[in-house]
């Protein structure tokens, strides 16, 4: 049983970022004696040697959500709300996207509000949002004042949840921290249902010696390859997830807890250059092209340039050196058999 001072609940803990976070947060010197509650619709794995409870739960079900706050570890002081249906998944199955990306977030939020109140604490509620909240005509560079008007079901769901978290924070129900994530590359494993999955796939598969299809453009010379994306590496993202837990609440802007996590701009062509630089022409030859207009429309509607200064002023960190170090680190993981 914990003293309830360092109990972290991660939803979506069987997913990529959730499972990475479970491992990363254990190394956080500012979170000693950590107790982890790991929940997902798929049974999450606990990092070895940790005080962790893993719970298989469908978070669209209120009763199952409540169990996460009623374990032997007591009421968590921090919730990382990471469960979700990715962009293409939400676009293709609108009802499921709403259920998981909005309704289930509200259930977790409400449980945090009520259970936190019963335990006499304001639970930190850290939410993984996305740059997909932006759409329509946008300025060249997104600033904290740019209005978000999504052009897809995924971004809409994230924005609805953001509004709820901001309102719950304003009312003193939770201490919300909303991180609008760049697209995180390079994702290991099999391709996800994200529209942006190819941004990882065109690096990951060739580094594994496997052919892949780039859905942007029809050849290496296509002008469509100039499509730019806003990216961050998983290593930097994990540092920022941990930093989000420790930012004093008074440092956020008064009216919103939204922060666009720092990232960098790279075009599809920049990614392919980085692949060639790190792994040579042979790797590049494994990238085939078949333009997918739906995919291209969605990714093109997302912004690719942000002003990082507000996030950096809060203490968040940024990748240095663009795509090449990101590809290099992933190549090392492939060679070590951990990608
Ligand atoms: N990876 C990225 O580039 C990126 C970018 C922006 C935002 N995000 C957000 O970050 C979060 C984590 O992303 P990820 O890449 O780890 O995604 P992921 O798909 O690997 O993980 C999401 C997890 O949510 C779980 N889940 C889905 N429905 C559920 C339900 N009903 N009940 C319980 N669990 C359920 C899934 O089983 C999965 O394990 C997501 O909310 C995502 O929208 C990710």
UniProtKB/TrEMBL annotation:
Keyword Metal-binding belongs to the record: no
Organism whose genome encodes this protein: Serpula lacrymans var. lacrymans (strain S7.3)
Start and end residues of each NAD-dependent epimerase/dehydratase domain: 8-206
PANTHER family tied to this protein: ADP-L-GLYCERO-D-MANNO-HEPTOSE-6-EPIMERASE (PTHR43103:SF3), NUCLEOSIDE-DIPHOSPHATE-SUGAR EPIMERASE (PTHR43103)
Domain of life: Eukaryota
Gene3D superfamilies hit by this protein: NAD(P)-binding Rossmann-like Domain, UDP-galactose 4-epimerase, domain 1
Taxonomic placement: Eukaryota, Fungi, Dikarya, Basidiomycota, Agaricomycotina
Keywords, comma-separated and alphabetical: Carbohydrate metabolism, NADP
Family matches, as CDD domains: Gne_like_SDR_e
InterPro entries for this protein: Epimerase_deHydtase, NAD(P)-bd_dom_sf
Protein name, entry field: NAD-dependent epimerase/dehydratase domain-containing protein
UniProt entry tagged with the keyword Signal: no
């Amino acid at each position: 049983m914990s003293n309830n001072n360092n109990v972290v609940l991660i939803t979506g803990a069987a997913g990529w970022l959730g499972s990475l976070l479970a491992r990363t947060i254990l190394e956080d010197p500012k979170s000693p004696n950590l107790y982890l509650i790991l929940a997902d619709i798929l049974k999450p794995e606990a990092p070895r040697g940790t005080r962790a409870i893993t719970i298989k739960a469908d978070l669209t079900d209120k009763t199952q959500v409540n169990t996460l706050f009623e374990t032997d570890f007591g009421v968590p002081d921090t919730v990382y709300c990471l469960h979700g249906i990715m962009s293409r998944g939400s676009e293709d199955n609108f009802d499921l996207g709403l259920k998981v990306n909005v309704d289930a977030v509200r259930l977790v939020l409400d449980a945090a509000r009520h259970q936190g109140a019963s335990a006499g604490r304001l639970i930190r509620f850290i939410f993984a949002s996305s740059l997909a909240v932006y759409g329509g005509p946008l300025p060249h560079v997104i600033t904290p004042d740019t209005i978000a008007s999504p052009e897809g079901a995924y971004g809409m769901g994230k924005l609805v949840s953001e509004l709820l978290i901001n309102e719950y924070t304003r009312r003193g129900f939770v201490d919300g921290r909303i991180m609008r994530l760049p697209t995180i590359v390079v994702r290991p494993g099999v391709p996800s249902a994200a529209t942006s999955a190819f941004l990882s796939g065109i690096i990951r598969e060739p580094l594994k010696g496997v052919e892949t299809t780039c859905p942007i453009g029809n050849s290496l010379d296509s002008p469509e390859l100039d499509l730019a994306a806003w990216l961050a590496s998983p290593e930097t993202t994990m540092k920022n997830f941990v930093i989000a837990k420790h930012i004093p609440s008074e440092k956020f802007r008064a009216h919103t807890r939204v922060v666009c996590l720092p990232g960098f701009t790279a075009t599809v062509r920049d990614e392919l250059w980085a692949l060639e630089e790190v792994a040579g022409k042979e790797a590049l030859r494994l990238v085939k092209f078949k333009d997918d207009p739906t995919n291209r429309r969605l990714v093109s509607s997302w912004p690719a340039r942000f002003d990082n200064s507000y996030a950096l002023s809060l203490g968040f960190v940024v990748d240095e050196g663009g795509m090449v170090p990101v590809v290099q680190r992933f190549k090392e993981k492939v060679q070590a058999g951990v990608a």
